[in-house]
Design a protein that fits this description.
2 copies of one chain form a homodimer. Chain A has 437 residues and is of the alpha/beta class. Chain A folds into 3 domains: 31-103 and 123-232, Nitrogenase molybdenum iron protein domain (Rossmann fold); 235-380, 3-Layer(aba) Sandwich (Rossmann fold); 397-436, no CATH class. Chain A is built from 17 helices and 14 strands. In chain A, the strands form 3 sheets. In chain A, strands 1-11-10-9-12-13 form a 6-stranded parallel β-sheet, with helices on both faces. A 5-stranded parallel β-sheet of chain A has the order 6-5-4-7-8, sandwiched between helices. In chain A, strands 2-3-14 form a 3-stranded antiparallel β-sheet. In chain A, helix 2 (31-44) packs across helix 3. Chains A and B meet through helix 5, strand 3, helix 10, helix 14 and strand 13 of A and helix 5, strand 3, helix 10, helix 14 and strand 13 of B. Strand 14 (388-396) of chain A pairs parallel with strand 13 (348-351) of chain B, so a sheet runs across the interface. Chains A, B: Its EC number is 1.1.1.23. Chains A, B: Pathway: Amino-acid biosynthesis; L-histidine biosynthesis; L-histidine from 5-phospho-alpha-D-ribose 1-diphosphate: step 9/9.
Chain lengths: 437, 437
């Protein structure tokens, strides 16, 4: 059902360009609605949150019940199957171990002129994590956002998760508990983002907001960007698989559908130099779609956005992959390490047939919050450094200022900034006076 | 003329809160105008650029003259004073040496389960640097943006600089040349940002856009964010100085005015535990303002946004500084290294009386593109990593998948994502079949 292209076909470039530029999301223009919600929360604080939560989530709250208290969290967690809890723990341990290696170190050195230079890393004071409610309320996303923040040393970690009609996912609370989240609020939508950015009487503001959400949440994050830091604006998920002859078509079909089942806007693409494998995977996908529980979603995604592209060779596949800059790139080929060196743009690379992308969604260790919609051309997945900031540090000795100051005075003059030049020259003059005394 | 506060006064907290929340910029709402310009450039490409440049910059261009050709650049550079050129070279060398140390290394390791994990860094393919025209057309900013991009290994580096009435700053072109810029276009405003993000027949699109600009440029950057990467949205510049008894009041006054002379919206703040120093600096600023060439701008900034705050001790000054999270923080105290450990939020720290902030604007080495408007709480200055992206890499051995896969299958089931679980389980089943054979 997905589009099938062959790179040697005369109309290939045209068809590929169409696939690359196809819009997968109807981005509803909710900017005005969101701006009004943010203004309301800034003005009326808790009262606005309570009113909006009653309207959108059919939940009657008071300031004292905005937060989910520790005993309610504990009671919910007690309902979680121990095997699920153990799996969550396993995932948390592996994610923590991976992200601990991302912790950068401070640098300082003194150059020949006598300038001591470097930089320091410090965590943000407080971070807020948005967790969607309902179907897309994923405990794995809680771990993927909260653990890097904790590794970074963030002092205060806040989660907002809407609980429409009072329904909450106990595994989400278990993940919050495992990751060391400090506060959980049962609010969602643009109003939650506004509360995190500007604060209310009950919810103190944070410095950085991460986590996925619907169009309202995304628009709200864009609008508060600058007031607080945000992670990227997530689009629909995607996988691109490069496979060579001899790969298992059922596994490839499952990997394609694991992406497609997320969302009808998701995209799954197979690139292969083997036309027979292309046929086999297409057939395997069709067979799988007949029995997959989420076949409606996965089928729509595969029909509307899926693609199988037969290329001349694997290098051409890598070049085409670079134009997609996929969020997830699976290299199911005999020598994935070599092919990976040709793949310049991807959020995450999965090497070899034993590394299904789904393992990376949960337990491999790397983050599953990754750049979508071709933004891997310029963006990276979530990391510990997203919860840190770098402060540059400089100390000039009098000799260093004497050595490099005159060039700065010259440039300040060229830029017409007299006080800049004078602030340096007055110090150079003082040195000269001292040396003359 | 600036506000004077004392931390022990009963109304201090109220006054400080007012100072912290004071808006320094009239952010004109230019979003609609900018959206129309972007749409026009997307639709009509070069023709839109030419028409908008005729209207805003009074420049008649053709597609062939959008770019400034190499011989014109060379002729302009030939007009630059050799001493200015040497100063630029000195600055470029020091900026390059500092940023070379920011180049991160790839990581790869194999954990006890047999998972080979890590990440790789790759540069963006193309970066665009916006350089304002007219008064704020600073060659130093060209170096501060272009050199990190070059250090990162960006393949194609493009500058857009408006040349109203045909006037261009030769030093800006000299800086482009020194930094290795590949293409220079004489266009500006939102239309330049649109061309960089979406491309035209003449200007190929880039992946990342950095550089300062007016309200139109800032709004355009916010609107194209996602399509391309952007640096932060810059607000007016600011300095906060903490000084103790015995510091030179003239130097401190010059450092405060070096910030104030940028822009009437700039902010200069002195914190000191010595009331006598506060008096002396206030007097020195007044004396300086009488003779400073840019006294109108600096005077307005100091009157409307400047502040001198007398604190009980230096630790209290550091705590107040953390609330401002200043772009530039000068520690003119006897032991600046110790005080720096108490300063958690700042874009750049300048240690000791011989490290005037202005030296950092040009020649110290660290970047002068820094987070403004309290965003140092969560953001960092421009760095080499802004022109790189991190791709995570994972390779699981069959044993590794056997060890960690079951936890992923469990979590996929809990999240209702069947194909996720099946993509892992089918591989585990194959292993079991093989081991039974």
């Amino acid at each position: 059902m997905a589009i099938r292209l062959t790179s040697s076909a005369p109309d290939f470039e045209e068809n590929l360009a169409g696939l690359l530029s196809a819009k997968r999301e109807d981005a509803a223009d909710v900017n005005d609605v969101v701006a009004a919600i943010i203004a309301d929360v800034r003005k009326r604080g808790d009262a606005a949150l309570i009113e909006l939560t009653a309207r959108f989530d059919r939940q009657r709250l008071q300031p004292a019940t905005l937060a989910i208290p520790a005993d309610e969290i504990a009671a919910e967690i007690a309902r979680v199957d121990p095997a699920d809890k153990a799996a969550l723990q396993r995932a948390a341990d592996r994610i923590r171990a991976y992200h601990a290696r991302q912790m950068p170190t401070d640098q300082s050195w003194t150059d020949p002129e006598g300038a001591t230079l470097g930089w320091r890393w410090t965590p943000v004071d407080a971070a807020g994590l948005y967790v969607p409610g309902g179907q897309a309320s994923y405990p794995s996303s809680v771990l993927m956002n909260a653990i890097p923040a904790r590794v970074a040393g963030v002092g205060r970690l806040v989660v907002c998760v809407p609980t429409p009609d009072g329904v909450i996912n106990p595994l989400v609370l278990a993940a919050c508990d495992l990751a060391g989240v400090d506060e959980v609020y049962r609010i969602g939508g643009a109003q939650a983002i506004a509360a995190l950015a500007y604060g209310t009487d009950t919810i103190r503001p944070v410095d950085k907001i991460t986590g996925p959400g619907n169009a309202y949440v995304a628009a709200a994050k864009r609008q508060v960007f600058g007031r607080v830091g945000i992670d990227s604006i997530a689009g629909p998920s995607e996988v691109l698989i490069i496979a060579d002859a001899g790969q298992n078509p059922e596994w490839l079909a499952l990997d394609l559908m694991a992406q497609a089942e997320h969302d009808a806007d998701a995209q799954s693409i197979l690139l292969t130099d083997d036309p027979a494998l292309a046929d086999a995977v297409a057939a395997a996908v069709d067979a799988l779609l007949a029995r997959l529980p989420r076949r409606e979603i996965a089928g729509a995604s595969w029909r509307d956005h899926g693609a199988i592209i037969v290329t001349r060779d694997l290098s051409e596949a890598a070049a085409i992959s670079n134009r997609f800059a996929p969020e997830h790139l699976e290299l199911c080929v005999a020598d994935p390490e070599t092919l990976a060196t040709e793949c310049r743009h991807a959020g995450a690379i999965f090497l070899g047939a034993w590394t299904p992308e789904a393992a990376g969604d949960y337990v491999s260790g790397p983050n599953h919050v990754l750049p979508t919609s071709r933004s891997a051309r310029h963006a990276s997945g979530l990391a510990v450094t997203d919860f840190l900031k770098r402060t540059t540090v400089a100390r000039l000795s009098p000799d260093a200022l004497a050595a490099i100051g005159p060039a700065a005075v010259r440039l300040a003059a060229a830029e017409g900034l007299s006080a800049h030049g004078m602030s340096i020259q007055s110090r150079l003059d003082a040195q000269n006076r001292t040396s003359l005394e």
